[in-house]
Amino acid sequence: MAPALLDRAETQRRLEPLLARAEGADLVVLPELCATGYAFAGREEAWAGAEEVGDSRFLEFLAGRCAAHGFDVVTGFAERHGDLLGNAAVLVGAEGPVASYRKLHLFHREKLYFEPGDLGVPVIERRGMRVAMLVCFDWAFPEVWRLAALGGADLVCHPANLVLHGYAQRAVPVHAQINGYFVVTANRVGRERQLEFTGMSLIAGPRGEILAQAPDHGDHVEVVQIDLARARDKQVTPNNDLLGDRRPECYGGLTSPVEPTR
Ligand code: ACM
């Protein structure tokens, strides 16, 4: 779907019928920065739209929708924390916000107004599922997808506002496959200022299979049933296990910083 830039009431009006169509689901995933839109002119606008997790009319609205429809929601959220702004994903239930993640890898102009995340990659136990959250450009960094797997995630919720055509939509099923878990990439559609978003949201399974895919425009709601046991069996052959065969003693170089190429 497409949030309305800096117009929470209009965004909520758009979300209400879409959320109603997801009734029966356990967990709903919404796009990145769903409460505010994405293409802020600068920090002042981002700050004006952002809310605190513990004091948010948008998250209160979602908690109400969770109570009405019986699901939990993961949403993208411009988060004020102290004097800082984070590009967050928040898991919300009928009781309110339950857990947060702050985007570790900021994209392009986001670096002008957001702080990079500082909460690691939490995995939350909820309704018998182990849920991790990553946000949009995190798609390009396999390290965080592996951290989610090592944390025991069955499912990665991935709110997105993707602008590079096809990049993440090709990479995400591979993250699902090589970590043996489910991924929901909820990408937005439409135009906002100079940006055009690419839609094609997807749900991928633990063999990298596409279980659902939205078109590149328009609103789309799809409910898919998943078998968590498939995400908990990491065996590839009788002699190979996706996590158990790792060679962490050989991976020390992964934690060495490198200079940008230009
Ligand atoms: C992005 O990280 N919103 C491309």
Walk me through the topology.
Blueprint: H1 8-21, E1 27-29, H2 43-49, H3 57-69, E2 72-81, E3 84-93, E4 96-102, E5 123-126, E6 129-133, H4 142-150, E7 155-160, H5 167-179, E8 182-187, E9 191-192, E10 195-196, E11 202-204, E12 210-213, H6 228-232, E13 235-237, E14 240-241
Parallel strand pairs: 1-2, 6-7, 7-8
Antiparallel strand pairs: 2-3, 3-4, 5-6, 8-11, 9-10, 11-12, 13-14
Outline:
This protein has 262 residues and is α+β, with helices and mostly antiparallel strands.
Notes on the structure:
This protein is α+β, with helices and mostly antiparallel strands. It has one domain: Carbon-nitrogen hydrolase (Nitrilase/N-carbamoyl-D-aminoacid amidohydrolase), CATH 3.60.110.10. The protein is built from six helices and 14 strands. Helix 1 (8-21) runs parallel beside helix 3. The protein is globular and about 55 Å long. Acetamide binds next to loops.
